């Protein structure tokens, strides 16, 4: 007999978290091995329980689901993470994929849809809606992207520089990339140093001259 799929649920809303567990745990092919109330707890429980698949909410206290996914998949590359979204939010799903997730589930999905998604991810596949296929293909094929205008910067630093060039402040950048304000500040310090720029205004001018900052 095949062992049941070991599933962990991370969501800060107890009614949803426990309700989803009650929906899945009675199924013979699934065993809910842990329930986490925030991202930090999810990281600890993932290391302790070693689930096969994690259903991960994005907006959680302590540590958001994107950062928790990044930490967990770095330590456990074989774990499958499905992020929970309210809808087909391109930005959230792409950020989750970059962090190591293998797809997403919409809150309110039917039981059979959830089970199919879990089974697909457990088998090594990815789960996403048809409307996201083109953008996800772009994410999964970095070689097809044009060369970055500032090759001395890391991909993350270039991403942050692009948002700086749109005129966003540190808080807005942190929210857009699901990173902490401290991480954003550290990256900006590195960008200034690598580009030998004296201040943020100079960085914005140089970035826009190079074609960045066209997103807004």
TrEMBL record:
<protein>
    <submittedName>
        <fullName>Response regulator</fullName>
    </submittedName>
</protein>
<dbReference type="InterPro" id="IPR011006">
    <property type="entry name" value="CheY-like_superfamily"/>
</dbReference>
<dbReference type="Pfam" id="PF00072">
    <property type="entry name" value="Response_reg"/>
</dbReference>
<keyword id="KW-0238">DNA-binding</keyword>
<feature type="modified residue" description="4-aspartylphosphate">
    <location>
        <position position="57"/>
    </location>
</feature>
<feature type="domain" description="HTH luxR-type">
    <location>
        <begin position="146"/>
        <end position="211"/>
    </location>
</feature>
<feature type="domain" description="Response regulatory">
    <location>
        <begin position="6"/>
        <end position="122"/>
    </location>
</feature>
<dbReference type="InterPro" id="IPR000792">
    <property type="entry name" value="Tscrpt_reg_LuxR_C"/>
</dbReference>
<dbReference type="InterPro" id="IPR001789">
    <property type="entry name" value="Sig_transdc_resp-reg_receiver"/>
</dbReference>
<keyword id="KW-0597">Phosphoprotein</keyword>
<dbReference type="InterPro" id="IPR016032">
    <property type="entry name" value="Sig_transdc_resp-reg_C-effctor"/>
</dbReference>
<dbReference type="Pfam" id="PF00196">
    <property type="entry name" value="GerE"/>
</dbReference>
<dbReference type="InterPro" id="IPR039420">
    <property type="entry name" value="WalR-like"/>
</dbReference>
<dbReference type="InterPro" id="IPR058245">
    <property type="entry name" value="NreC/VraR/RcsB-like_REC"/>
</dbReference>
